[in-house]
Amino acid sequence: MSNFLERPSVQPWARVKKSQQLELILASVLPTVIALFVVNVFGVHGAFGMITVFLPLQILAAGFVGVRRFGKKGFGDSLLLVSTISFAALVAVLLLSVLYSVIIKGFPALSAHFITQNNVYVSTTTSLEYGGVGHAILGTLLVVVLATLAAVPLGLAMAVFLTQSQSRLTGPVRSFTQALAGLPSIVSGLFILSILPFLGMERSGLAGAMALFPLMLPTVARVAEEALRLVPADLRMAALALGAPNYRAFFQVILPAAKSGVVTAVLLGLARIVGETAPLILTLNANVSTNLNPFEGGIAALPTYVYGFISSGYDTSLSRAWGAALVLVILVGILFGLARVFSRSKSLKTKSSSKKKGNK
Amino acid sequence: MNEISKTLAPQTRRKLKVKPTTTGDKVFSGVTSAAASIAFILVTLILIFLFIRAAPALQNQGIDFVFGSEWDPDGSGVMQIFPMIWGSIVIAALGVVFATPMAISTAYLIVFVMGKRASNIATTLVDLLAALPSVVLGLWGLWVFTPVGEGWGQILNQYFSWIPIFQVTDVAAGFRSSPFIAGWIVAIMIVPIITSVTREIFSQLDRDLIGGALALGGSKASIFRQIILPTCSRGITGGVLLGVGRALGETVAIFYVLDLSFEINWSKLLEPEGGAVASLILARFGEASSEEVSGLMAAGLVIFFITLIINFLANGIVARSKAGTR
Fold first, then answer.
1. In B, which residues are within 8 Å of A154 by CB distance?
2. Hey, which residues 179-198 in chain A have their CB within 8 Å of chain B?
3. Please, where are the H alpha helices in B109-228?
4. Which residues contact B265 (CB under 8 A, 6 or more apart)?
5. Could you tell me if B259 and B19 are in contact, meaning their C-beta atoms sit under 8 angstroms apart?
6. Contacts B137 to A, Cβ<8 Å
7. Which residue has the higher pLDDT, B24 or A144?
8. Residues 202-221 of B with CB under 8 A from A
9. Whole-angstrom Cα distance, residue B226 to residue B36?
């Protein structure tokens, strides 16, 4: 499917000549070497200098090779390639920089007691040998699980409505779901805060979970809808034709068939909310000790823990923030990796079924 | 022929029963339709309750709440957020300017250049970028990116200060905490969403158009400029608008990399002062009196209203352009 723009070079069966290979290699290496040389010798400073020297050189080199091989239009092609690759590389550099600094700066703080102990006797200058994020991990899990308990069944039900209903309302329902997906997270926190007095509640773990619910719901609904859509309609029709009522057709035929997709939906929803910070700052009272009662008392969560330690100015608390950020990123990474595994098992299934069709 | 099909066709079509008959099905369809209305109910409830809590502030301040620029809830009780709204717009615009080329390039490479495996990996990485918690980006932005962005700002100011947007009032104050840096942080957050929308639009592009252009001797560059961009421009616009919505609502990361100021900063991108409505809420919330909380609720209402409109617009554009390319 992809790669179709890759035009065969005049004769696809002809091997690329040695001299052309050399040109390609030179064009991709030489600009970097020259740029490094110029920067080091003349002392043009920093990444900015590197880019101002390197980019024009790279464009020139690629343009030269392009013109040599394809004539005039080769220049535009190579210009396009160089510019798209450099922009995409910028994205990669930014992403890797975030991951790299979180890992490098968070790793020293990581230890067995850091992820099990709580923060009761910790001040901003306490050394890293004491205290940890255990209470925040538990708090995050509690709040997130509560939100999930509400968001998954409802999101699934929404997905069922969107895929099966013949009602004319599916259009509006979909656009409101998408609108909810764009809900700024701080507004979700403000909303829960504004209804707490009407419900007679205080800021608590439950309030935090309620603030996460509107953020998780649209993600679950959208991904689950895609998963349900992948189930062939024949399966449902066959079940209905055998006399199964709609709900049994769903629970015993469609849901098992879409299982991995639904699990992916749950995992992606979790990844969406596990790092949410602003709504939790508004709805949770901070706490340094472990609290697993969602109805009263302060509760700590990983994002609010990071938030609290970022700008205190002491090295130890900054290390704590990086450490907690690393734990958070690892959590997100695990959820994400699991989601990949499950969605891949789905694609494997569809692949094997298409193979069967091909064999016929 | 026509007559035969007429005689073969059943005279009267039996009406299909669509409505659920058994109790189980009634419950099932009831539950799913009730769940379907939750999105609508939530949006309405958010508007209503924010409005109830915001009403006192809105009543006091009137229309000046949106168009004035003074914030003194404890003294004179005046709360006006125009500098914050303008700051949000500036940062979102900067974010879009930085993010759009990155996103289009990435989507182009993923769909049209990379092999299947490489494009799978790239897609996962972009999605991972979307899942990075904003507090982590704030931490990174404050301690890792700010020194780098400061250097960029310095160079821009040094060589391009004849362009008004790169001027600063006081060079010695440094280039930290500027809208420029906040714009980069926001760009990182909205690249994934623009990329994924653009990628989808690109992959639904009619391949025959490109095949035809290749057969006519078109180059990749001309295909990109004259076929891919024009046919997909609507979808890309929708994706960018979705990004704008996300940028306007971004809170924690901006809170750390920007100095909020009620001196309105019209266009000086490198000046260490700016505004963001969502970050204002976070910054003031901790020590707010009940009057100020009402003002913050009103600010939340404003930002929600704006993002709601932008999101509806964006999703409409994306949906229509998807239907168009097919």
1. 35, 38
2. 179-188, 190-191, 194-195, 198
3. 116-131, 134-140, 146-160, 179-203, 207-215, 220-223
4. B83, B86, B87, B90, B179, B271, B273, B274, B275
5. no
6. 98
7. A144
8. 203, 207, 210, 214, 219-221
9. 42
Domain ranges for chain B, please list them. 41-325
Q: What are phi and psi of B260, to 5 degrees?
A: -75, 135
The DSSP code for B164 is: G
Size of interface A-B (CB pairs under 8 A): 297
A310 contact residues in B (CB cutoff 8 A): 135, 138-139, 142, 256
Summarize pLDDT for B144-198 with one digit per residue, the tens: 999 888 888 888 888 888 888 888 887 777 788 889 999 999 999 999 999 999 9
Collapsing DSSP to helix, strand or coil, B71 comes out as strand
pLDDT classification of A1: cutoffs 50, 70, 90 = very low
Tokens 């925040």 belong to residue: A136
Return the amino acid letter for A297: G
User: For the purposes of burial, counting CB atoms within 10 Å of the CB of A15, is it exposed (0-12), middle (13-18) or buried (19 or more)?
Assistant: exposed
Q: Does domain A134-359 have CATH number 1.10.3720.10?
A: yes
Neighbours of B105 (CB within 10 A): 22
Which CATH number describes the domain made up of B41-325? 1.10.3720.10
- Residue B268 confidence (pLDDT) above 90: no
Locate the domains of chain A by residue range: 18-105, 134-359
Taking residue B13's Cβ as centre, other Cβ atoms within 10 Å add up to 7
